[in-house]
Amino acid sequence: MSTPAASQDLGAFLRAHRALLKPEDVGLPPTTRRRTPGLRREEVASLSGVSIAWYTWLEQGRVTASRQVLESVGRVLRLDDAEMRHVLRLAGYYEPEASTARGSVNGALQPVLDSWPVSPAVLLDRNFDLVAWNAAWSAVWGEPSAVSADRRNLMWFMAADERLRGALPDTDWEPLAMSVFQHFRAQAGMIPSDERIAALYRRLATDAPELSHWWSCHSVGELTSRVVTATPVGSEPIRMSLSSLRPVDDPASLILLFTPAGQDDGARVSALVNRPLRSVGLARKVG
Predict the structure, then answer these.
(1) Mind listing the pLDDT tens digit for each residue in 20-37?
(2) CB count in 10 Å sphere of residue 36
(3) For residue 13, is pLDDT > 60?
(4) Residue 282, exposed/middle/buried by CB under 10 A (0-12, 13-18, 19+)?
(5) What is the tens place of the pLDDT at every residue in 51-89?
(6) Please, which residues have CB within 8 angstroms of residue 38's CB and are 6 or more apart in sequence?
(7) Longest dimension (CA), the chain
(8) What are phi and psi for residue 240, nearest 5 degrees?
(9) What residues pair up with 238 in beta bridges, in sequence order?
(10) CATH domain 102-279 topology
(11) Domain 4-90 has CATH 2.40.70.10
(12) What residue spans of the chain are helical by DSSP H?
């Protein structure tokens, strides 16, 4: 079942979503005398078919709940599919990834990434750390090994890496970065006590303090397919379609694949991959 930390996160998540709803959203008459926004605990409890005391304890992280009860609460709070999966993970109904052969999986997948010569591809572990990538990824987004190991994480690259952020217009960067964060938040709910997650949040707070409101929110979501336009250093704009794949042998890992939208886009990626190293500008060491 869930750990104490996960139970606290579950309570915070439910409180945050309860605060987003108004009585009329759930079929109750509107009232004017409310000291705080959102539904009252007793309203959620009544609509979910549980006692107010029990629901209060659930938000306080003092009790565990069955899947059926959590799904009932989720319906009352109007949680979508991604948010409901996050609740279930926090409650311990989704087992964390427990692969004991992650290194061999990573090694086996490197040839797969390399088989996409003009499609930037990267393998992320369960914490979104970059563990393998192909030459096209390095050419378009920058060489991951050029930054320190504690920063070699997709969250950090999206939030704080000047080269990646500079390659994307704000209209593409912000929704993609937010989607990455929301997906990470849902994934992190399976392993709330992982020290790597805590260390990553500390690093982000130091390197991207202007985005601190992102780290403290409780939104979750899926990293869905989309088309982005990148303009890497020394290239004309490249349109690419983002897809995400999960390896069967290690389903907590994730492969991100950016497929060029057309022949011209593929040719531009190829030109970046094949240009001399001295012109690539990899001296982007971050200590």
Answers:
(1) 988 888 888 777 666 777
(2) 8
(3) yes
(4) middle
(5) 999 999 999 988 888 888 999 999 999 998 888 888 988
(6) 18, 19, 20, 21, 22
(7) 68
(8) -140, 150
(9) 230
(10) Beta-Lactamase (3.30.450)
(11) no
(12) 4-18, 41-48, 52-59, 67-76, 81-90, 102-114, 135-141, 154-160, 162-167, 170-188, 195-207, 212-215, 263-274
Domain segments of the chain as ranges: 4-90, 102-279
**For position 2, what pLDDT does the model report?**
60
Q: Which two tokens stand for residue 268?
A: 């531009």
Tell me the two tokens of residue 55: 């629901």
d(CA 90, CA 188): 9
Residues in the chain: 287
Burial degree of 27 (CB within 10 A; 0-12, 13-18, 19+): exposed
By the 8 A CB rule, do 83 and 74 touch? yes
Question: Which has the minimum average pLDDT: 70-79, 173-182, 185-194, 220-229?
Answer: 185-194
The 3-state DSSP class for residue 251 equals: coil
CB count in 10 Å sphere of residue 247: 17
Cα(218)–Cα(182) distance, integer angstroms: 8
